[in-house]
Write a structure and sequence with these properties.
about 110 residues, mainly alpha, Arc Repressor Mutant, subunit A, two-stranded parallel sheet, two-stranded antiparallel sheet, DNA-binding
Length: about 110
DNA sequence: CCTGTGACATAAG
DNA sequence: CCTTATGCCACAG
């Protein structure tokens, strides 16, 4: 496969798709894994389209502190939190509990 | 080409 | 980790 053939968005979707249930990662981690650590903001933006696609759990992607900064982009007000809790991830006040334990590092898992 | 924008990250106070 | 400021970069218009 030629990674260069894939757009930035597609790369983000692929990585996000690899996230197992009950796990979470940060935009920066994905961006860094893609070699664009400084484009972390773009990762979130790519998620905009991801939310409409299936197989791309955008709700499992949060900022580096485990804060559900993008929950406003989901349909409901607490949809993102509900999805995470449904997978066993505790969320209180838009923040993931034990984010450290739920963190999924693409470098360690995918490599 | 230039400007605006954004679900971030990092630094400084 | 709070707030404020700056950098960052890909994309839309």
């Amino acid at each position: 496969m030629n990674p260069d053939n894939k757009n930035f968005f597609q790369k983000v979707y692929e990585v996000a798709r690899q996230i197992p249930e009950g796990r979470v990662t940060s935009y920066g981690a994905i961006a860094k894994y893609l070699g664009m650590a400084r484009s972390a903001r773009m990762v979130g933006w790519a998620m905009n389209g991801a939310g409409r696609l299936e197989g791309v759990p955008a709700h499992r992607v949060v900022n580096k502190i485990g804060l559900l900064t993008g929950k406003h982009h989901f349909d409901g007000t607490n949809l993102m939190q509900q999805l995470l809790e449904n997978e066993g991830v505790k969320v209180v006040d838009n923040q993931i509990i034990d984010f450290d334990k739920h963190f999924w590092d693409p470098f360690k898992e995918l490599r």
